[in-house]
């Protein structure tokens, strides 16, 4: 039997933010509007991620469009798009969050919630982004 450590608070916040970003897109509303509709507020970091993606979507999508060769942002699987936006926000606007943590957790979420090849795709795009915006990959 393999020991699997419990997910930490940041991991849980990212997972919740992923669900909220996916829901906002499915409802065709902004993240701020979705957060305002919730009966209970999410973890503060989850709210930060949703709000950050909302405020910086054009910038984030510009990066993703340039780095995801042969993939238009609007043609990506919805979960991949939400994950990439969330992780790109962290890489671009949360400099105290370690690059490895951002990429590793995004890849793990992609493997759990998206298609078979999504982990590799998410890893490739985020590694390129980390190299360009943080000088590391």
Description:
By secondary structure, the chain is an all-alpha fold. The protein has one domain (9-134): Orthogonal Bundle (N-utilizing Substance Protein B Homolog, Chain A). It has seven helices and no strands. The chain has helices at residues 9-27, 31-37, 44-55, 57-67, 78-93, 99-113, 118-134. Helix 1 crosses helix 3 and helix 3 (44-55) crosses helix 5 (78-93). The longest helix has 19 residues, at 9-27. The model is unreliable at 1-6 (pLDDT under 50).
Q: Let me know the average pLDDT.
A: 92
CATH class: Mainly Alpha
CATH topology value = N-utilizing Substance Protein B Homolog, Chain A
Number of strands: 0
What order do the SSEs take from the amino end to the carboxyl end, as H and E? HHHHHHH
Radius of gyration: 14 Å
Low-confidence stretches: 1-6
Number of helices: 7
In short:
The chain is mainly alpha-helical. Helix content is 71%, strand content 0%. The protein is built from 7 helices and no strands.
Note the topology.
Layout: H1 9-27, H2 31-37, H3 44-55, H4 57-67, H5 78-93, H6 99-113, H7 118-134
């Amino acid at each position: 039997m393999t020991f699997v450590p419990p997910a930490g608070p940041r991991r849980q916040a990212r997972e919740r933010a992923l669900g909220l970003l996916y829901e906002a897109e499915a409802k065709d509303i902004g993240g701020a509007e979705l957060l305002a509709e919730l009966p209970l507020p999410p973890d503060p970091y989850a709210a930060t991620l949703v709000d950050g993606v909302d405020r910086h979507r054009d910038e984030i999508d510009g990066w993703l469009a340039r780095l995801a060769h042969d993939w238009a942002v609007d043609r990506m699987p919805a979960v991949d798009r939400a994950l990439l936006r969330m992780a790109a926000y962290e890489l671009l606007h949360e400099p105290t969050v370690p690059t490895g943590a951002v990429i590793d957790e995004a890849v793990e979420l992609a493997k759990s919630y998206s298609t078979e090849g999504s982990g590799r795709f998410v890893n490739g795009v985020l590694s390129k982004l980390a190299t360009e915006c943080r000088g590391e990959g």
